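In response to the reviewer comment on reproducibility (Comment 2.3), we provide here a single inverse folding case reported in full, input and output, so that an independent group could reproduce the run without further information from us. The structure tokens appear first.
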């Protein structure tokens, strides 16, 4: 489990992260999304103890990471796959960390196999690695201590389609075994495919969070009637929120059956009633972050 409680990071007058609270739970993949400059990396650095919060607290498995004697045995971190020592081989990078974490050298071969780096590749200096190979090495490094928690900033960056699918299966398997995964990525389709929970951040603040199924389902019913004003009043009186969509229908989270019953009781004739399809993460992302992306910045 990872918990961010009221995390704030100020650089001078600028709040890079502003009162951010969320929980990434065991057995689930939590996606951390936001436009460029939203505060994702800064939040992840605070979770990993690399950046001290101005206020608030971050804990991993109920403790601040900095207080752990051997954090690599609990948390695997991949924050920047290109930040590897260019003159070391992949195998040397892993062997050194295995020694520092008190792990048997057999872990090195095990994680190389898990991430699909061959023996020959592992003996090359990382300066000759492609970005995809660096990501695989970074992930091997994160998995080395057999952690229960993974914090991964853009791990799929540079992977080819087969690599992305492989990463998806690896993360789903890690969560299915009870692990906690916090993952940031700009690949929205991939996030939609892999995440159980979503946290969306913009301008340093949380804009939306919840289970992916909840957030992506949106208002579940679309309805038209001969008297939308009376229907809206009746639905609102029954405790439902109602919005008008761009297509001119009314949208509500109430089920089609419930809308039908309310309309019947209010004696409003319906001209259309249907369950809405899923919103899709791309739509949710743009709807939620419209004010915060670079394209949303007024000229
Ligand atoms: N060390 C620093 N000093 C000053 N400002 C910083 C520092 N680190 C980050 N920031 C600012 O904090 C804000 C959030 O940056 P951050 O890197 O966390 O965003 P991000 O969501 O990870 O963006 P991206 O998707 O582009 O990686 C930005 O405005 C950035 O310029």
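Designed residues, in position order:
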């Amino acid at each position: 489990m990872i918990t961010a409680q009221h995390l704030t990071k100020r650089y001078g007058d600028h709040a890079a992260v502003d009162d951010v609270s969320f929980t990434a739970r065991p057995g689930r993949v939590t996606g951390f999304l936001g436009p460029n400059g939203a505060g994702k990396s800064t939040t992840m650095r605070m979770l990993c103890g690399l950046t001290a919060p101005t206020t608030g607290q971050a804990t991993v498995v109920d403790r601040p990471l900095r207080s752990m004697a051997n954090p690599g045995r609990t948390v695997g971190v991949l924050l920047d796959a290109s930040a590897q020592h260019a003159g070391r081989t992949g195998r040397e990078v892993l062997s050194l960390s295995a020694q520092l974490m008190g792990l048997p050298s057999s872990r090195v071969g095990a994680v190389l196999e898990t991430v699909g780096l061959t023996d020959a590749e592992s003996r090359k200096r990382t300066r000759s690695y492609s970005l995809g190979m660096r990501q695989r090495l970074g992930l091997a490094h994160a998995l080395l201590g057999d952690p229960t928690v993974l914090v991964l900033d853009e791990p799929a960056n540079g992977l080819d389609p087969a690599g992305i699918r492989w990463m998806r299966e690896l993360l789903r398997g890690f969560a299915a075994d009870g692990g906690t995964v916090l993952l940031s990525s700009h690949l929205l389709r991939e996030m939609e495919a892999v995440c159980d929970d979503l946290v969306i951040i913009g301008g340093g603040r949380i804009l939306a969070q919840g289970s992916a199924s909840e957030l992506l389902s949106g208002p579940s019913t679309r309805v038209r009637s001969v008297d939308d004003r009376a229907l809206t009043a009746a639905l609102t009186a029954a405790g439902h929120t109602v919005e008008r969509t761009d297509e001119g229908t009314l949208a509500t989270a109430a089920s089609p059956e419930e809308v039908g019953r309310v309309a019947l009781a209010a004696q409003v004739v319906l001209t259309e009633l249907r369950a809405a399809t899923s919103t899709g993460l791309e739509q949710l992302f743009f709807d939620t972050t419209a004010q915060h992306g670079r394209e949303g910045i007024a000229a």
